[in-house]
Write a structure and sequence with these properties.
Blueprint (H helix, E strand, L loop, with lengths): L1 E2 L17 E2 L5 H7 L9 H10 L3 H6 L9 H26 L5 H20 L2 H6 L13 H17 L3 H19 L6 H9 L5 E7 L6 E7 L5 E6 L2 H16 L30 H13 L7 H6 L4 H6 L1 H6 L6 H25 L12 H11 L17 H18 L15 H7 L9 H12 L2 E9 L6 E10 L4 E6 L6 H20 L3 H4 L5 H20 L4 H6 L11 H15 L1 H4 L4 H12 L2 H16 L9 H18 L5 E2 H12 L3 E2 L7 E2 L1 H14 L5 E9 L2 E9 L5 H11 L6 E6 L2 E6 L10 H10 L5 H25 L5 H29 L12 E2 H12 L7 E4 L8 E2 L3 H17 L5 E9 L3 E8 L8 H7 L13 H12 L3 E4 L6 E8 L9
Parallel strand pairs: 10-12, 17-19
Antiparallel strand pairs: 1-2, 3-4, 4-5, 6-7, 7-8, 9-11, 12-13, 13-15, 14-15, 16-18, 19-20, 20-22, 21-22
Helix pairs in contact: 2-7, 4-5, 4-7, 4-8, 4-15, 5-7, 5-8, 7-8, 9-10, 15-17, 16-17, 19-20, 20-22, 22-26, 24-32, 26-32, 27-28, 28-30, 28-33, 30-31, 33-34, 33-38, 36-38
Length: 1008
Amino acid sequence: MPVAIAETCKQPSLGVLKHIVDVEADVAPALAELARFGLSEPGPELTNAVAIGLMHSTYLYENQAVLSEITPGLLDALSTLGLAFLRRRAAVDAYQRTASPTAASLSKDVAQAAFGLTDWASKKAWLRESAALGRNFSDTAPPARLLANLCRQLVGVFCLAGEESVASGLLEDLLSEARRQRSTPAHDPKTTLQEAIAPLRAEYSYEREGPDHDTMFISTVTDTRGRRGTGVGRSKKQAAQNAALDLLQRYIPQALSTRTPEPLRTPTSGQRHFPVAIPEPRAHGIVVGELQKQFALRTAAAPLLSQAFVHSSWAYEHQRDMIKFHQRDNLVLAFVGAEAAGYEDALAATRQAAADPPLEFAFRGLGNDGYNSLFSRTGLVSGLLLGTGQSSKITEEMGATAFQAIIGAVFIAKGFPDSLEPCWPSAWAPMWQIIASATLRQSDPTTLLQEAASAMRLQTEYGFRGSGPDHASRSQATVVLDSKTLRMRIKVTGSPATGKTRAKHEASAAVLRTLNRLAQPTLARELTNVAVSEVKLARFLLAHQAALLATSPVPLQRWAAARLFGLHLAAMPEQLIVWASGADNLLDSQNTLEGAGARLEEAFRAALEPASTLRIHLVRTLEMLEHVKAPEDLTREHIDQLVQLCGVYRCVGAEDPDTDLSELADDWSLLYRGRLTTPSMPAVRLTGRERAILDAAVAAVLLPGATATVEARSIRPLRVRIVTLTGQPPGASIIAEVCAMWSGVTSTTGLSPVEHGIEVTIAATESPTERGPITVAVLGALQPRPEPYHASVADILHDLKNQVVAARQAVTASAETETAKLEQQLDARRHLDRVHAMILQLRAATSLLEPASDEKAGVELGGFLRNYGRAAFAWLPDNIALSTPGASHPAYVAIDGRTLIAILDNLVKNAAEAMPRGGSVKLGWAADNYEAIIEVADDGPGLPGGLAQAFATGQRIHSTKPGGNGLGLLSARSLVRRVGGQLTVAPVTSGTAWEITIPIVTRALEAS
């Protein structure tokens, strides 16, 4: 059914997507359930939005042709917004339903709701029934985590659509379950005690008894009323818990009973001890009044605004005043404010993502430094109540907490509105743009350095040195970078700063500046006139990157995204060559990288590989043919598409000789005989691929019966324009498709549509006279190399085209009798059946899979292999035994699950087919901090003669199986290479053993 996300009447300014797509899932079960929460008779726009919200990334990747404007980044944004709304909703729920909440109790309740979403979503049949999932889930139940993510996406859709009440109703069942869990007897006496006596604090003291081998601790807890409890335990923690439990049982037993939390009462409900504003000091009262006017709040809001400025140090020193005014510190308000502001931030970023869907969505909230800066800008700093020891210095954390508490106070005083934006004063509008930013933020320097260091396998360690008096102390941080590959370490010292965190950022920023210089094409010029210490750091970082690339697999896509070792310049050959020359000069790498050239060339070649672009066109073509249900529906467009695609794959898979443009023009004159005008062409040397691209452009423009002209408009870069003169010009859609398909063949060539034709631009690259190993590797990677894998795909596409042509001929040929006509129809149907069978074969052989966005952090290898083994038993022959390894520790590999399944399926099936009389296949794995090796071994007859050598040298593999095409192993190797890994034949005395080497990634566990 057609679906779209569009602007809703409630929020016409959101700019939400207006994409028309085709989703096969039926969202009727979801709509029926959502009607219970107020979504009655939704219009087509909102119905379409629900369908997008229930779409999983696996479905998106398998339907790229019809979902071209929906991106993984958009789905990630919806999920981020849904989680932010859930956290805000849970925080409000816990705040409203608890008589004396603490920041710790609110945090626990919010985390409980976020974690509970996974189990809750797994029980919702309507969610499973309406989900749009990839084919991998056609025979298996989707995991609970997947369903939880879909639920977050759906909540995000309602937030964008201005239907927050529906989102709240949907989550009410989840929050009700969380409340039931909170009403059970407490298992943490210390937390329960603190909640019972808040806002005051309990004091714990400890005594130690017994020898070292049999130590016991005695803890005594005392509250401000003098009530005491004692407890004994093997550790201080256990003793303190028992002491808190003793006090609760003696004096506050009701706190341990099963109960429904008492709601926080409002002034009108008759609560006897409702908080009041703190009247002194005078500056505090003035600030509270100013804030009340800014937000147009009633007088009843003054106590909340006053509380927003109460730092815990002041509360501790003024306990009598805190009891007198029934007040508490600002931590609870800060927690609520942080969740409210976090939701507004996610909403603004997701609105932008809906208007312009990104490929990736990396959301980062505003940090303490940002909130502290905003607090300083308000001019309300004088109202902050600080203890004597803190009054001389307002730290970043204090300022951030105060500003978040102000947001929390306003949010509560306004009655928990759907959005704070309409309540925000116009005078503070610039601050709102910072709080709710549509532009995704970068991480702090330390986080960015950790990400880069993780990709480079560099160990980091920080040290600090203080200076100055206590009231104006300064810290200076030093970061130590440890390269196990080089067996070297280097120290980088940052500028002095206030506080260790800021000092740490300064040291990290110094390293990042050098990494940024190394990423520039003109790195040689970037490192001119800089300090010797920075040149030394640059040389260390570059040498480490080069040595790592030369010795082990790395996640190339991650390196390119991080702009490491020039891989991000792959699409700009001229700049890449300049960078390589500068890198060689910096390293004097003739000696330091001796023997590493081949591995470096492979890394650059993988970054330059056009396979990803070709795969998109291949998927689109196959899906177009799959939708053909009758031979009569086959058109000339299907044939033209296959011809173009076959030409591209054959070009990439072949090794054509270089030629000259003037010689090529002579060939055209003979081939097209007067139909193509070729004025004097310059003598420019072309590679075989560049010639193939020009040939394809001429063939696309010069339709039967038409004439055209070819003109060289410039030489450097070479611009060749082919335009129709007379006759029927090609359609705009055909030209656009040809340009898109052939532009990805080489990094030096691009095609663009012009009126009635195509312009081909070929960049000229100059080779430096002095060539070090890095420059040689880059030049080698820029030279096209035939890929047997692509040549094999071209052969299948050619056969596929022949079947389509045969089907069309059979159905359109004239028949003298009715019987002959029926025979022709039967023949056409057989050809179409063969087309569909070949498509399935091609899909399986080429493993048409792309990484799923929710799996981009990798899969846990041990558990994955165990699950794979269980699934493989369903299709393996009975006489084949399969053993899978246990897992002694978790290891996450930089590959998505579906791609790894495709690789293992190929190797395991090959092993089973090689042992028709039975045998065993063994899966094993090992991993260190940087890479994992998966072994697939069998006890069969071994690889056929010559296959191992052909595979190792990159030659065409000829299958020994009936109907085989040799694509399987080449496809598996291509998939492994895409993540920076290797597939190799392991030396064994009997049978066959394959080793799959894949980089390790670190995986951050989500709260959900």
